[in-house]
Structure formats: structure tokens, C-alpha cells
Automatic annotation (TrEMBL):
Its main location: cytoplasm. Signal peptide: none annotated. This is Exportin-1/Importin-beta-like domain-containing protein. GO terms for biological process: protein import into nucleus. Keywords: Cytoplasm, Protein transport, Repeat, Transport.
Amino acid sequence: MSKAIEILIFEDKLAFDKSNEDYAQMAFEELIELTKERPDLFLPHLKDMFQCIYQILDNSEFEEKTRFLAEELMVLLLLHYRDEKPVLLRTGKFISQILSRLQDIDDDPSWDGNDNFDDDSRVFVQGVKRLAQYAPAIGGQFILEKFKIMFDFNFFSEKWQSRHAAVISCSIIARNCPKESINELDLLVEQPMKAVDDTHFRVRWAAINAIQEFSKNLNPDFQFQYKLLALFYFSNDCTSGLLTPYMDEIVNKLLRCLQRGKQLLKEEALTAVGSLVSSSEDHFQVYYKTVMPHLKVIMMKAAAESNSVLLRKSIECITMVGLAVGKKMFSDDIQMVVQSLISLQESKLERGDPMRNQVLRRVISPNLGDDRTEIKEQVIEEKAVACKVLFSCATELMEGFDLWIDEVAQTLVPLITFDLNEQVREVSVSAMPVLLNISKASMEKGYVEGYQGLPFEELCFYTIPALVEALHKEPSMEIQLTILDSLEECMEMSGPTLKTEQIKRFLHIILEILITSSTLSRSRVEYEQIEKIHITAGDCLITFTEVYKASLSQFFDQLLSCMAYMWASFFLPNDKNAKERRTAFRIFSDVAEKCQEEALKYCEGNLRFLFDACYERNPEVQQIVAKCIGVSAQFGGAIFKSHIKEALGGLNSIMRDPETLNPDYLPAHDAAVSALEKYTFSMMTNSMKLRFSEELIHNDNAHLSKVIAVFAEILWAGQNLASKGTVNRIIEQLEDFRSDLPPNTWASILSSLAPSRAKILQLKLLS
């Protein structure tokens, strides 16, 4: 054996050439016979043997007999050592060389559809003929399965030549390999079928030719499977009215596939039924009693045979049918669907039986102890489908689902945090508001007789803290957003039901997210997601402050950190956008309204930043700070009073901005007027009106000129900025000022105003 190998290859190179090809042929013949008797002897020499074989096969200068013997030896060795690493490496290199040849094709706009396969001098033609000759020997399924990454790289390449090579390869394999050797049609046909929409005409043409080869050489499996797939896409894009004339024929053919087809055909038929149901909407109701029994038979048989794939698809299909026809028609079968998720065999367990929870958890949360990757992936996929079905049933069939809330909640809640699959976690999170909504509706209409399930408040105690902890641990930004949305919805629905410790934990995590996302350095890719998380977390906290407004003072220490976040958000204009600023303002507003002077006392040292921001030439910033000044004036009491001069100056600057009537600046202008009105009328109660005038006139009229300037701005803008009632109260106050002030002081203040403002003020007082 060693001598025969030495004749063929030495130091990774062929040890012979055309002059001594006879010896090589004799060596091949000896090795072929030896392989039939003792294939185990070749294991240490696989690398050298396959390198020799592929070098010969790739060189057309060798005699046909030499290449035939090399191919025969390759086939024998592949029978025994197909999955050995040296074989895979050498075979992969050989396939890669063929694909490179198939890419050697010119981009000729005048191409007439003729590839001239008789011209052996062309590298492209050499690649076609090599793959056609050797694919049957290597095995079409083996090539597509073991080198899927290589083919996918070409299918998704930006170079059209690479995509064309991949499509042509599938076409060649379909034409030259026995159809019995291709077990998974999807590996062969899925990507070429998608290529009919390719951007390059040569790739589209190759895809059409490939489909022709599939139709001729993979009959009838290709026709059955992909006719159903075509029906799926057709019905997916059809309106109900367009489908109606063909419904009888389509439904009858699908039922025949469900009754008589092999498993693969049944799977595709179930998918097609689901698509048909979604598109036909209410028109499917007339077929419900005909179709549903067949679907139930498939589901029960799949459950009895532990056929998880068919069971999953049948449950999905039944659910889609039920949701389409409505709860009235589906009510008799909904319990069956849920029960099928709870047990793989029919069960008569009573509601109070603890086995219901245990069985449901085993179905949706099976043991992942098996180390085999394919088993884990299958289990995870089944679990995701089960969660989606439960979620769909809960969403659409609320009245028929309330009896199952306990089991579903206690099953899904642990999956929020601990499941390995993102899809399972996301669906479980989305289900929480739905479950609370169903439970609340059941509570409001009165529990079903004999119902001993979780009360609504207890369900809130169970689900909301679970969402909070999930938010803390969740690594995916997309799922974090889903959790925040669900958390806000649950909190709004639950009302003030959480316990003190639960609230503290919520505040700790939500404020941590707000502060972290505010200071996080952002790449371009992450920016949008971080921004969404920040805003959604802010919305969630705002909902909390509204729901728990009566008890906010209990959590003042934690909310103080929110105040610090608010100031940071206002005064870093290069890092903060308007949405984040608005979120910060709403949080500040709620806290200030409830905690009043205490809240303002905490950030009194930063008030000057608020007033300084009034002078920024940014209308969004001006609008937000004006609103904050208004809230501070309304609730800040003595703390704000000591800063009235700076506040009035800032508001006056906003109102007298040269861009004041520009549409972009009007909201800021309006906010400044509103802020001034809040301050003015917090001082101008009937019992305090005189005191207000006296305070402004006191201390050398330090504040008075600013107040009158602001009033003049409001009068000049008319009812564009203030209501008629507000304008009348301003005029009344100005009359008091004029009567209380010495004439020369009044005249001095008027002269400091812009002429147009002074004129309108005098006209209003005269009228």
C-alpha cells in the first residue's frame, strides 16, 4: 500500500506525470481493490489520498482512464470516511475551486442567453463540466449540507458572478444527482427560487433555468411541496375578495394533501391553510366545520406519535383558524388547543389539580439537559411556538381564556428571565399585559363560580416585579424596549397595587437605566436604540409618578436622583435631544407638583442654569426651560420667590426673541407666557393682589420693569399667546401699576420698552 501511495504523491505533490501515467493507473487499481477489503488502512493517509485525487480530477491533461480510476477510489473512500476532517477540508477546497471557475464569466449586456457549453477553453465551461461529472460521485446532499456556508457566502455576495455561480451549482446538482440522494429539498431549491428577483438579469435567468431543472428532475416532491409554497405566497398577497371565487377548489385540494400526503406535504399544507385563513378573513367561516375536524385529527395523531414538528404546525394552524373565525365559532375548540399545549395526550384534570401547572411547564419549559444541539434547537423552537399560540389565544379570545390565566402566568413568568431563546422571552414579556387585562376583566365581571385562581392584585404582585427583574438582567436592547412597554402598560392597568419594597426596587432599576443611558457613550449603530430605551424608560417612570402620585413623598430620597438626572438632561445640549429633555421635564413636573418646595430646594443651586438656558437660540430648549420655570413658579413657594428677577429676565428674553413669530419659536413663546401667567396669578389671588403690587414696586422697582416688559409682549402678540381672560387680567394689573407709581417712574418704564410695545400698552390702557 505504501509503495502504491508513493507512486501517486510525494511531499504534497503528484509523484508522476504524463510520461509515467501507466504506473499511476496500476497504483490506483491496487488501492481500489485494497479499499474494498481493508478500508481501515487508509485512515492515516486520507489527507494525501484526497489531495492526489482532487489534483488529478482538476487536471484535464491526464488520460480519461486515470481520472476515472481516481474518481472510483474517491467514491469508495467517501463511503467510509465522508465526515473525516481531512476529507472535508480537501473536498471543500475542490468545490471552492469549481465555484471559482463558475464565477469566471463576463458581464456582457448583449448576452443572448447562449452559454456555448461546447467551448472547453472557457474556464466557466470547465467548472460546469467538472461539477456535473463529480457531484454525483461526491453526493449532492453532501455538498449542499457540508459546505452550506460556502454556498451561502456566494448566494449573498455583492458580486453577481458569485450569486450566479451558486444558482448554477444547484441547477447542475439537480440535473446530475439522483433525486433519491437529495433528502432536503430546501437546501437545494430555496435560494435559487429567491434568486428570480435578483438585481442582475444573468442571475434571474439562471434561477429560471434552475427551477426548470427542479421541476423535471425532482418530480413529484418538488411540485407538491413548492406548489403549496406558491399557494402560501399567492394567498398571502391576495385580498379576501380575490380569493373567494377559488376557495372551494383550494380548500378541497389542501384537504387531500392533509389526508393523504407524506409528513413534508402535510407540513406545507398546514402552512398554506394558515395563510389562506389569514387572507380570506370572515369568508373562511363557511369552511370551518369541514376543515377543523381534519386539523384536529392531525394534531391528535401527532401528539400520540410524539411527532413534535407536525404537532407544532397543527396547533399553529388551528389557532390561526380559530382567531380568524372568531371566538363564538371557536369557543368549543379553544379548550382543546390550550389542553394540547398542557398535555400531549387528552387529560381530564380538574382546575384545582396541581398537575395542570406541572404538565404545562413540562410542555413549554422542557428539560434542556440533552447536549445534542439539534435537540436543544428543536425544543426551543417548540417552546417559542407554544408561547406564541398562548399569547394569540389570550389576546383574541379573552373571555374563553380567563380560566387558564393562573397556569399560563405561572408558566410564562419564569421564561421572561431564564429562557435561552430571545423569541420565547419576548413573547412571554408581551403576554404579561394581556394576562393582567383578562384577569382585571374577570374581576370586574365577577369570578366564575368555584374559581380559586390568583386575584388580580396578587397577579400584579407576581408579574410586575418579574418584569422589573427581567429588565435588570435582559442583554438584548430590543427586548428591553418590549419589557419597558409591557411594564408601563401593566403599571397603568394595575393602579397603585404594588408594595413599598416592590416600588423601591422598580425605582432603583428604572432610574439606573435613565442615568446610565444619559451618560453612555454612543456609537452610530447604538444611538437610536439607546435613545428609544431612554425615552421609553422615562415614559415608564412618568406613568409611575401619575399612578402613585398620592404616595410619592415616601420615595423622595430615590426621586432626588431623578432630579439630578433632570438637570443633567437640560444642560448638556450637545448630548441631549429634545425628546430626552421633554421626558426629563415631565418627570420634574410630577415630582415638583407633589413634593413642591422640597423638590425645588434640592436643586436650588442649579436654578441659575435653568435661567441661563432661556438665552439659548434653540426653540426646543427655550420651550422646555420655560415650562420648568412655570412649574417652579407654581409650586416652588419661597424658594422660587428669591429668584424671581432672574426668572423674569429669562422669560422676557424668550418673549422678545427676534424670531418670536417664527412658527418654530411660537411654542417657546407660548410656554414663556404660560410660565409668567402661573407666577403672576399664584401671587394675584383676590386676597393678595395689593400685596403683589407692593412687592413689585418695592426695592427700587427691581422686578417691575421686567414684569411690565413681559406684559407688553403679551399685549403686543394679542390672543395668539394668551386668552382673552388673561389679557383682561393683565390690563387690570397694569392699571394698578400706573395708579400706584409716580408719573415719572411710569414714564421711564414706558420709554425703556420697544416703541411698538409701549404704543400697544398705552392703547390698551386707554381703551
